[in-house]
């Protein structure tokens, strides 16, 4: 059975940036795209669906995992099962809210990882992205602090500095999981 690295973290912490870098550096790792009911940004590895399309796929059993956050629907496809069955390392941009379901679904194959960065770094990234106003940014930072303090048993990746350092830390984590 393969290894599913399930990244969780606040918006702006750089999950999609890390996944894109991992995809380029480690082509043997499989980075799963998410299905989401909003237009995807250029930095996201996702497939945009209407709510109707999303619900039809969910009814058809085409999601290994799905959740709702911020009024949107997110899903990870059943291709995860095939990839894990072929002993692959799979990386996903997950959700803390869906973590209990992910644990139930994937069991020992799942390795949750909390991505962090300082409030200052996150605030600057969210402002540059331009999707949220100041009140929404502060609400996201509050959720980031809650997540940062929760899940003490889950490994952390600090993505507040150079991306190469975070990628190297991810490689060490994957190497440890693959050998376990």
Automatic annotation (TrEMBL):
Record EC number: 2.7.4.23
Catalytic reaction list: alpha-D-ribose 1,5-bisphosphate + ATP = 5-phospho-alpha-D-ribose 1-diphosphate + ADP
GO molecular function, one term: ribose 1,5-bisphosphate phosphokinase activity
Assigned keywords, A-Z: ATP-binding, Kinase, Nucleotide-binding, Transferase
Domain Guanylate kinase/L-type calcium channel beta subunit, residue spans: 1-178
InterPro entries, sorted: GK/Ca_channel_bsu, P-loop_NTPase, PhnN
Stored Pfam families: AAA_18
Enzyme class, first EC level, given as a word: transferase
Coiled-coil portions: none
Cross-referenced Gene3D superfamilies: P-loop containing nucleotide triphosphate hydrolases (3.40.50.300)
An annotated GO BP: organic phosphonate metabolic process
Protein's pathway: Metabolic intermediate biosynthesis; 5-phospho-alpha-D-ribose 1-diphosphate biosynthesis; 5-phospho-alpha-D-ribose 1-diphosphate from D-ribose 5-phosphate (route II): step 3/3
UniProt function note: Catalyzes the phosphorylation of ribose 1,5-bisphosphate to 5-phospho-D-ribosyl alpha-1-diphosphate (PRPP).
Stated family: Belongs to the ribose 1,5-bisphosphokinase family.
Protein name: Ribose 1,5-bisphosphate phosphokinase PhnN
């Amino acid at each position: 059975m393969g290894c599913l690295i399930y990244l969780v973290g606040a918006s702006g912490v750089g999950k999609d940036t890390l996944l894109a870098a991992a995809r380029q550096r480690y082509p043997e790792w499989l980075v799963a795209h998410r299905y989401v009911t909003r237009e995807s940004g250029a930095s996201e590895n996702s497939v945009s669906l209407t709510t109707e399309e999303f619900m039809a796929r969910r009814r058809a059993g085409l999601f290994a995992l799905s959740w709702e956050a911020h009024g949107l629907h997110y899903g990870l496809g059943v291709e995860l099962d095939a990839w894990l069955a072929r002993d692959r390392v799979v990386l996903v941009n997950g959700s803390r809210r869906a973590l209990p379901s992910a644990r139930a679904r994937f069991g020992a194959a799942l390795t949750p990882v909390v991505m962090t960065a300082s409030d200052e770094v996150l605030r600057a990234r969210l402002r540059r992205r331009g999707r949220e106003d100041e009140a929404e940014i502060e609400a996201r930072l509050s959720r980031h602090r809650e997540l940062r303090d929760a899940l003490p048993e889950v490994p952390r990746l600090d993505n507040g500095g150079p991306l190469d350092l975070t990628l190297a830390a991810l490689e060490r984590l994957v190497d440890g999981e693959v050998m376990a």
